[in-house]
Design a protein that fits this description.
Elements: H1 2-24, H2 28-31, E1 32-48, E2 55-61, E3 67-73, H3 77-82, E4 95-103, E5 109-116, E6 122-124
Parallel strand pairs: 3-5
Antiparallel strand pairs: 1-2, 1-4, 2-3, 4-5, 5-6
């Protein structure tokens, strides 16, 4: 009987821990505006390879000549590697065009659909937008 109680307690703890993780992961439309597609050109300042989402940070010159650092969410590092991304592709200073959707509220952040290098090479970012066409 004691063992059954321990198993039930262990299962309850695992279920509670899993629920927190699932709750923390957001739906695309909760954070990003599917009606606000953007295309931004800039230079990489940092690439954070992480799961469940990796992030690309780029410096973008706004219409007033000010440099604004934008943050773009992508799929996780594992998904990017499966799509052909390599860590050395996004060194600081690399010029990119990032297409995706802007964060709700219009700040300098978005969800990336793809990045394009100056030579025309295009990598797909594994957007979480459920309405995006598969690339």
């Amino acid at each position: 009987m004691k063992d059954t109680g321990r198993w039930i307690a262990a299962i309850a703890v695992l279920a509670a821990a899993s629920a927190g993780t699932a709750y923390a992961h957001h739906a695309f439309s909760a954070e990003f505006d599917p009606n606000a597609p953007i295309s931004v050109r800039g230079r990489v300042t940092e690439m954070l390879w992480a799961n469940p989402h990796a992030w690309i940070y780029i410096d973008v010159e706004d219409p007033d000549g000010e440099i604004v650092n934008w943050a773009f969410e992508t799929s996780g590092a594992n998904g990017l590697i499966r799509r052909g991304w390599r860590r050395e592709d996004l060194a600081a200073g690399t010029e990119l065009v990032i297409e995706g959707w802007q964060v709700r509220g219009g700040g300098p952040s978005g969800n990336a659909r793809s990045i394009t290098f100056p030579d025309g090479t295009r990598l797909f970012a594994g957007t979480s937008n459920p309405d995006a066409q598969d690339d």
